[in-house]
Design goal:
The protein is an alpha+beta fold. The protein has nine helices and twelve strands. A hairpin with a 6-residue loop joins strand 3 and strand 4. The longest helix is centred in the N-terminal third of the chain and has 17 residues. It is globular. 34% of the residues are buried. The structure holds iron/sulfur cluster (2 copies) and FE2/S2 (inorganic) cluster. FE2/S2 (inorganic) cluster binds next to loops.
């Protein structure tokens, strides 16, 4: 049955009226008017968590700036998107992040906003030394050391590599909570990761900071799919970047349907030099909303094992009871097929 049509409401954005359906957010109204609005923790396929505050706007009658990604539009609202107050607030958010986090792999939009808002991360001084591997994970709330003020605080630390499928490079983490949302009620309902610690020591952690193989993680990779800064990355991409062979310009993206089960998830195969190097799914796909399971996300590796026996072994390694080579052998009756 069709849903009843929604009432339309008028909102004033920078002096011009925009009409949006009831229930829309201010960000929806801004996008309807094509106002370029920075967002970091917001994603179409996740519940807004208001973590980053980079999308703030000035709302007539409101004492504080409001996050446009979460604030519902109401008829008669008057919104300013480019006031000095808004620009200063957005610049500070981007500047604090850029001074303490490695944003070099953030998407083009983030780099453009850094330039548009005149972000000067250098003014906080030279960065403090990176933390040794695992040291940040041992910090307890309220026990953090007092900075001496001569260096810019940083979340720099070595990459966590503890499994064959994806790595966690938390020196790139802006603590946007997207991975936590995707692992939780918004997609996976596994709850393998959460935020531990407080203040500058806050970080994404597994329960009791165990390694991923020891955690509840089921390797769906949905956290990677939503991470905006490259903090979570396919191991294939990580290894190629380390080896200097990762080349996005040389990659093609082929859309296909996952062959593993009957759900029919849309896959985007990122291919370089005739090898699949990572897999994603479109955010606007009605089946996946960008989310996949371990087989769709990482099962591509068996495609690249050219011999049928290799393919079979790879499929078993992913927990797939019957791989393609099994099927060939069963259908032909030839165990060596
Ligand atoms: S891979 Fe999936 S289960 Fe594991 S932490 Fe990421 S979202 Fe959670
Ligand atoms: S790991 Fe990525 S998705 Fe998770 S909080 Fe950090 S930046 Fe956000
Ligand atoms: S994008 Fe709106 S609070 Fe982060």
């Amino acid at each position: 049955m069709l849903a009843p049509p929604k009432r339309l409401i008028d909102v004033e954005i920078d002096g011009e009226t925009v009409r949006v359906p009831e229930g829309a957010t201010l960000l929806d109204a801004l996008r309807a008017k094509r106002v370029d609005t920075p967002t970091l923790c917001y994603s179409e396929n996740l519940t807004p968590v208001n973590a980053c505050r980079v999308c703030v706007v000035e709302l007539e009658g409101s004492r504080t700036l409001v996050p446009s990604c979460a604030r519902k539009a109401e008829g008669g609202m008057q919104v300013a998107t480019d006031s000095q107050r808004v620009r200063t607030s957005r610049r500070m958010v981007l500047e604090f992040l850029a001074s303490s986090v490695d944003l070099s792999l953030a998407n083009d939009d983030v780099r453009r906003w850094i330039s548009d808002y005149g972000v000067d991360a250098e003014r906080y001084g030279e960065q403090a030394a990176p933390a040794p591997l695992g040291e940040r994970d041992t910090r307890h709330a309220g026990h953090h050391h007092e900075p001496d003020g001569t260096r810019a605080e940083t979340v720099a630390q070595p990459v966590k590599v503890d499994n064959d499928l994806y790595v966690r490079d938390y020196e790139r983490c802006i603590l946007c909570y997207k991975c936590v949302e995707a692992c939780g009620v918004d997609a996976q309902n596994t709850f393998a990761i959460a935020v531990a610690g407080r203040g500058f020591d806050a970080r994404i952690s597994t329960e009791f900071d165990v390694t991923l193989p020891d955690s509840a993680c089921v390797y769906c990779g949905n956290c990677i799919g939503v991470c905006p800064t490259g903090a979570l990355m396919f191991k294939s991409e990580h290894d190629m970047r380390e080896g200097g062979t990762w080349n996005e310009e040389a990659q093609t993206v082929t859309e296909t349907i996952c062959p593993y089960c009957g759900v029919g998830c849309d896959l985007e195969l990122h291919v370089q030099d005739n090898e699949i190097v990572k897999v994603s799914s479109p955010l606007d796909n009605s089946i996946t909303s960008g989310h996949l399971c371990i087989k769709g996300r990482f099962g591509f590796q068996f495609v690249q094992n050219r011999g049928p026996k290799d393919a079979d072994a790879a499929a078993r390694g992913l927990g797939i009871v019957e791989g393609p080579a099994d099927r060939i052998a069963r259908d032909t009756g030839d165990p060596d097929a």
